[in-house]
Amino acid sequence: MARFQRQPGVYALVVKVGNTSKLKIGALGDVEFQRGYYVYAGSAMNGLAARIARHKRKQKRVHWHIDYLLAKAELIEVIKIPTSKRLECKFSQHISGYAESSIPGFGCSDCACSSHLYYFKHHSNIEVLKKSIKSIDKKVYFRDHS
Ligand SMILES: [Zn+2]
To answer: Is residue 20 a contact partner of residue 74, using CB atoms and an 8 Å limit?
Structure first.
C-alpha cells in the first residue's frame, strides 16, 4: 500500500470552465479562459496519489498556477501515467498536439515549454486525446531520448 501511495508519475487534469471568464493566475496576472475544457500536464515524482488528492482538495494555500484555476473551475477528470521518468514536458507536448490553443506561460515556470495548459473547446476532443494516451506505446514513449 505504501509503495503504491508513493508511485511517481505524470498526470493530466481535465478542468471544465462553464463560462468564459477572466481569472487572476498568481504572477501570470489576469488570464482569460474560454468556456470549454482545459487540460493541464503535471508530474509528481514523490507520489501521484498525494498530488492528485491535493489538487482535489478545496482548502489549501494557493501555490501553483493550477491552484488558481482549480479554485474557480471544476476538475472533472484525472489521467495518470505511472512512471519514474521525468516525462512531464514530453507528455505536455503530446497533449498540445490535440488542443486548439494554450495559455502561454501557465505551469511551466520550471521548464522550457511555452505552456502546460491546453484548451479544448469540445469534450469530444478530450476523448480523442484520452484514446491517444491509452495507445501510447510505453516502451517507445518511456525510452530516454531527447
Ligand atoms: Zn515543460
So the answer is: no
- Distance (Å) from CA 35 to ligand 1 centroid: 24
1 Cα: distance to centroid of ligand 1 (angstroms): 30
CA of 92 to the centre of ligand 1 (A): 7
The single residue listed with the C-alpha cell 511517481 is 8
Domain boundaries, the chain: 2-141
- Ligand 1 centre distance from Cα of residue 58 (Å): 25
Phi, psi dihedral angles at 120 (to 5 degrees): -125, 120
Tens of pLDDT, residue by residue over 77-135, are: 999 998 888 899 999 999 999 999 999 999 999 899 999 999 999 999 999 999 999 88
Question: DSSP readout, 52-108?
Answer: HHHHH-SSS---SHHHHHHTTSEEEEEEEEE-SS--HHHHHHHHHTT-SEE-TTTT-
Q: Facing residues of 102 across strands?
A: 118
Q: Could you tell me which residues are beta bridge partners of residue 9? A: 44, 82
34 alpha carbon – ligand 1 mean position (Å): 22
Q: How far is CA 108 from CA 20, 48, 114, in A?
A: 23, 19, 7
Q: What is the pTM of this model?
A: 0.92
